[in-house]
Amino acid sequence: MNNFCDLKRFAQLIRINALSCVYKSKASHIGSGFSCVELLVYLYAKWLKVSVGDFKESQRDRFILSKGHAAAVYYSTLAEFGFFPKSLLENYCEYGCPLGGHIQHNVPGVEISTGSLGHGLPIAVGMALAAKRSHKKYRVVVLASDGEMESGANWEALNMASAQKLDNLTVIIDRNGFQAMGPTESILPMNNLDQRIKSFGCACRTINGHNFKKIEKSFKGLPFSAGRPSVIIARTVKGKGVSFMENKVEWHYRSPNKDQFEAAIKELRRG
Fold first, then answer.
1. Dihedral, CA atoms, 53, 56, 57, 58, nearest 10 degrees?
2. Residues 6+ apart with CB under 8 A from 157
3. What DSSP line would sit under the chain, residue for residue?
4. Whole-prediction pTM value?
5. Is the peptide bond before 98 cis (omega within 30 degrees of 0)?
6. Residue 78 near residue 108, CB atoms below 8 Å
7. Is-contact 15 34, C-beta < 8 A?
8. Does domain 4-270 have CATH number 3.30.70.120?
9. Are the CB atoms for 167 and 230 separated by under 8 Å?
10. Which residues touch 232 (CB under 8 Å, ≥6 apart)?
11. Could you say which of 123, 186, 191, 239 has the lowest number of CB atoms within 10 Å?
């Protein structure tokens, strides 16, 4: 994929596949998944150095999806990039299928199991520190949710990352403005999130998380500052791509019925 039009078409295909997974399995979290599709597509299409044929190669880049409830979208992304057969998506969340409703480490392409929020970033810091101490060149990227930043473990991790000068670590915060029970600003305001992150010694930029040009510009500028971890606050829309799902907290936990599924698929195909 050499141009942004290809990336956009790819993103819509992943949304369609992920929605099909959620509809068939009567699962949830489609809104949370849709907000980070473009970020995942760019990472796997243009930036991460990972080998499908030899995923355990020691110099590979490491990626952690800390917001593990966005599983349907992440699995759809991995399938499109050839980590496992797309046919496996048909059994999403079924008994005996490795593709669970939260990320499972035994799936090809997945580094660690996630779902308990606040764990991904601390693990990513450990991976980045290991690379520095063993003089390896791999990079570590973690994608977290904004609601997840309420966890104290994340701030301890940022403090450690800064103290250890982990400029091989990139943290992406999916800032869609919602968490499980409502808007983040109504539960625990974080409108000064960038200032807090900078106060911990990290370099931080805010971008449009659905705009491939903005995403690419940020990634081409990594690390933002030598000797400092890079944090990207990606402004996104929960439920992006389906009008009746966008910015609606209920699509954190709701499963679409037949009419909603068909309407959403129709809209995504037009998209």
1. 170
2. 121, 122, 124, 125
3. --SHHHHHHHHHHHHHHHHHHHHHHT---HHHHHTTHHHHHHIIIII----STTTT-TTS-EEEES-TT-HHHHHHHHHHTTSS-GGGGGGTT-TT-S--SS--TTSTT--S---STT-HHHHHHHHHHHHHHTT----EEEEEETGGGGSHHHHHHHHHHHHTT-TTEEEEEEE-SEETTEEHHHHS--TTHHHHHHHTT-EEEEEETT-HHHHHHHHHT-SSSTTS-EEEEEE--TTTT-TTTTT-GGGGT----HHHHHHHHHHHHH-
4. 0.96
5. no
6. yes
7. yes
8. no
9. yes
10. 170, 171, 172, 173, 204, 205, 206, 207, 218
11. 191
Q: In this predicted model, what pLDDT tens digit does every residue of 168-215 receive, in sequence order?
A: 999 999 999 999 888 988 888 888 999 999 999 999 999 999 999 999
Strand order in the sheet with 203-208: 62-65, 140-145, 169-175, 230-235, 203-208
Neighbouring residues of 110: CB distance < 8 A, sequence distance ≥ 6: 74, 78, 103, 104
Residue-wise burial string across 148-175, b where 16 or more C-beta atoms lie within 10 A, e elsewhere:
bbbbeebbebbebbbebebbbbbbbbbb
95 φ/ψ angles, rounded to the nearest 5 degrees: -60, 130
Length of the chain: 271
Domain chopping of the chain, boundaries: 4-270
